Amino acid sequence: MEFNVVIGLEMHVEMNTKSKMFSSAPVSYVAPSNTCLSLLDMSFPGTLPSVNKQAIVNAIRLSHALHMEISDILTFERKNYFYSDLPKGYQITQAFNPIGKNGYLTLNSGKIIRVERLHIEEDTCRQFHIGNESYLDFNRAGIPLFEIVTLPDITSGSEAKEVLETIRSMVTFLGISEGKAELGNLRCDVNVSLSEKGSNKLGHKVEIKNLNSLANIQKAVDYEISRQSNLIKEGKSIKQETRRYDEAHKRTVKLREKVDAVDYKFFTDPNIPPIKLSKEFIKDAIDSSLELASEKKVRYKALGLNDYDSSLLVNSKDITDYFDEGLKTGCSVKLLANWINVDVQAILNKENISIKEFNISSIELGNLVLLVEQDKLSNKQAREILLEAHSSDKKIEKVLQERNFSLVNDEAKLLDIISELLDSNPQIVTDYKEGKDHVIGYLVGQVNKVTNGNANPKIVHKLIIQEIKRR
Ligand code: ADP
Ligand code: MG
């Protein structure tokens, strides 16, 4: 039996605004519990919400990135329910008229995933348990959230993961969320159903709640696909239900069967009148957006980078910012990209630090790359300097002065070395004359050995050819 897999995602993304969605309390993910809250976040009587303008700007920017229709009338409704992480008894959301509608995003394969809606709402308290006690942290209550809902166009765990990665890339490049799944900035509910190939009826969907890491999304979906297909093969039916992912046992576990839809008794929040957004406001928000990863990639390719190098750079917004800054030194685009993607990345990986924690500025790195380009340093020397500056926490300039590195440009001295090598390996000359060009590379290697990598590569190359031809 073969199956069609149908998956839709509901994602929540916490914004990084300075203050909360409807109060002036600060947004912080590191402050001690219950230090970032106002009376409104605890819904004291007499408090009134005021809408966070930056959150609206952010929502316009993300809606635009997702090619959505943007509503110019904003309304907010109350979603009424009681849960311990929502002691005020309702959440303010946009139930009837989401700010963004009918958009899409594109996967690397070119496949289009339609995005049905994007709306703004407020986060609930963070609830956690220690032993037999439960705790509430109101720092999270009222943080602005995007909720983004896709149509069920996704067909595998890896596609589901890529959709969330794409959203993460958009919000981090737009600078509107930290986008850290491990801190709860990105959370995702996944709906999975299976139907028999050929049938055009969708199966009952199973919802897996609150996945908080990219890896877990893929694992949970893959597990769920095999669980459901095994049940169907055994002749059993799939019930509509809500499950969670049990990370320790790498499986999904039933939470509850879907009862009749909860009636949230949505009604317009009486304290927030509808807001009309002017055309200029929407246009300004879009025009002043930061570049998306896809846009940066197009720009890098126009500068001459290949697909591989530019793709590596745009994996991280902070890396691209570092790269863009380093380009201001006027060094080679290709070389700088290589240095960042290979040498700098190796240090970051090894020490498990981010580019923001890296102690060599991009301008310093750009200047070092310039020295290599101008044949004042070999690659090997530059690499040593970078490592030393990093480990000793000194400026590159300082290390250059101390080490007094300079390339051997002395042609007479280099010619001596080359002649000696050719004298003891006369076969090289014969080989070269028979068309075996690779012997040049071998000889360059030998010269580097003798000079410790300090010879000017252009001069070495020129002298080798000259000397071989002379013999
Ligand atoms: P609900 O009313 O249960 O919230 P929605 O129609 O709002 O359902 O859809 C919620 C999410 O479930 C969306 O992301 C949607 O794409 C997805 N979804 C809907 N139907 C299916 C299905 N048969 N299989 C998998 N996902 C589905
Ligand atoms: Mg729904």
Structural class: alpha+beta
Total E-strand runs: 16
Shape: elongated
- Main sheet record: 9 strands, mixed
Strand content: 15-25%
Rg over alpha carbons = 30 Å
* Strand neighbour order, sheet with most strands: 2-6-7-10-1-11-12-13-14
- Count of individual helical segments: 15
Mean pLDDT equals: 93
Q: Which regions have little confidence, pLDDT < 50, spanning 5+ residues?
A: none
End-to-end CA span: 75 Å
Ligand set: adenosine-5'-diphosphate, magnesium ion
SSE blueprint:
Elements: E1 3-14, H1 53-65, E2 69-70, E3 73-74, E4 77-80, E5 90-93, E6 100-106, E7 112-122, E8 126-130, E9 133-137, E10 144-150, H2 157-173, E11 186-196, E12 206-211, H3 214-233, E13 241-246, E14 251-257, E15 267-268, E16 275-276, H4 279-287, H5 293-302, H6 307-313, H7 317-327, H8 333-351, H9 362-373, H10 379-392, H11 396-403, H12 411-424, H13 427-433, H14 438-451, H15 457-470
Parallel strand pairs: 12-13
Antiparallel strand pairs: 1-10, 1-11, 2-6, 3-16, 4-5, 4-15, 6-7, 7-10, 8-9, 11-12, 13-14
Helix pairs in contact: 1-4, 2-3, 5-6, 6-8, 7-8, 7-9, 10-11, 12-14, 12-15, 14-15
The chain binds adenosine-5'-diphosphate (ADP) and magnesium ion (MG).
Tell me what the structure shows.
The protein has helices spanning 53-65, 157-173, 214-233, 279-287, 293-302, 307-313, 317-327, 333-351, 362-373, 379-392, 396-403, 411-424, 427-433, 438-451, 457-470, and strands spanning 3-14, 69-70, 73-74, 77-80, 90-93, 100-106, 112-122, 126-130, 133-137, 144-150, 186-196, 206-211, 241-246, 251-257, 267-268, 275-276. The chain is α+β, with helices and mostly antiparallel strands and 471 residues long. Strands 2-6-7-10-1-11-12-13-14 form a nine-stranded mixed sheet, with helices on one face. A three-stranded antiparallel sheet has the order 5-4-15, with no helix packed on it. A two-stranded antiparallel sheet has the order 3-16. The longest helix is centred in the middle third of the chain and has 20 residues, at 214-233. The termini are far apart. The mean pLDDT is 93. The protein binds adenosine-5'-diphosphate and magnesium ion.
